[in-house]
Amino acid sequence: xxxxxxxxxxxxxxxxxxxxxxxxxxxxxxxxxxxxxxxxxxxxxxxxxxxxxxxxxxxxxxxxxxxxxxxxxxxxxxxxxxxxxxxxxxxxxxxxxxxxxxxxxxxxxxxxxxxxxxxxxxxxxxxxxxxxxxxxxxxxxxxxxxxxxxxxxxxxxxxxxxxxxxxxxxxxxxxxxxxxxxxxxxxxxxxxxxxxxxxxxxxxxxxxxxxxxxxxxxxxxxxxxxxxxxxxxxxxxxxxxxxxxxxxxxxxxxxxxxxxxxxxxxxxxxxxxxxxxxxxxxxxxxxxxxxxxxxxxxxxxxxxxxxxxxxxxxxxxxxxxxxxxxxxxx
Length: 330
Hints:
19% strand, 31% helix, 9 helices, 10-stranded mixed β-sheet, alpha/beta
């Protein structure tokens, strides 16, 4: 597969205003620790429609139940699985792919299972070095790579072909999951995310984002500059993505038609600033995969702010260009 680069990799750092994210909490069902002996498993299913259910899965790594939106093909039968991660608050606040995009409709005629974990706000879907006093234990890398896939394969009767995609906060981590679990995902995509987490600009923005929610950012990968930041940086580990179909997208931050902003609306200052920052990250990642000789599809748009309309468009592009071909589906 040839590398496809749309737009250009940028090296100049724009001035960035990082929005502080407010802390939100969600109630979870806690299973007694003794239950961990039984391993990860489905503990509840709530059908919302013939093709949409919420599947509760017990995670021994975090000793709690995690709810997952699950979309299934209309025709049934064995299908590959896309793990589609939500943004900053993990859909704990009701903001995510299900409620804020047309993802449900888009996948309605696709031959794929789509699993969307609910939870993991500001966790960057990684295994934290230490528990946090406010949000507890984050072992999301373990959950998403060593627990959930096997459970879903059994529950859905899948083809065991997997892909992972993330948006905003979870964009870079989606690529990192492919780095940390080689061979698990046939494709990985970052949608308006930061796949260059060890860059000083990214370290500062991520630390402020986590710290703004009264959570200790250094409990994740250590203080800025600690080895964990590099170990979980897709740009620094681009060579480890060889063999995975890779997609990364971002935009300049300047609003455009893709954002579908109503006429007369105020300029989206926060969204523009965040998208400008992740555009820098995506440019650094583009340079890294090019230098490593790793095939990748990179989309860097001249217009687009950090909006759900942009994310939706990037998801469509990622699906047709990268994810569906890698999964052998349509």
